[in-house]
């Protein structure tokens, strides 16, 4: 009952979908962050904390990331351009996480 009251932000006695999402979002984002870390590490073949062109190509070909986050039609060069914020030709975990968290947030804003 206490959790339901806390989730009912507008106090109308009902938990609307947007209120439910707002309550679940922190846990969901944390789990998504953990999944991103695991995905990044599995594609970081060299273990250097960076994804190079070959590793990004492997990521694209794996099919392990849904088409919203990583469309199959994108080339390796396009993905590196989108992921590589500092333009050093490599993708760090911070860049990888930022890209996917930003995409995930755009999904959240469409759900409410």
Describe the structure.
By secondary structure, the protein is mainly alpha-helical. Helix content is 62%, strand content 4%. The protein is built from five helices and two strands. The longest helix is centred in the N-terminal third of the chain and has 27 residues, at 17-43. The radius of gyration is 18 Å and the shape is elongated. 11% of the residues are buried. Residues 106-112 have low confidence and may be disordered.
Task: Briefly note the structural class of the backbone.
Answer: mainly alpha
Instruction: Give, in spatial order, the strands making up the sheet with the most strands.
Output: 1-2
- Report how far the terminal alpha carbons are from each other: 24 Å
Q: Indicate the multimeric state.
A: single chain
Number of alpha- plus pi-helical segments: 5
What is the succession of H and E elements?
HHEHHEH
The rough form would be described as elongated
How much strand? under 5%
Radius of gyration: 18 Å
pLDDT averaged residue by residue: 80
Largest sheet: 2 strands, antiparallel
Give the strand tally. Answer: 2
> Into which percent range does the helicity of residues fall?
55-70%
- Low-confidence runs: 106-112
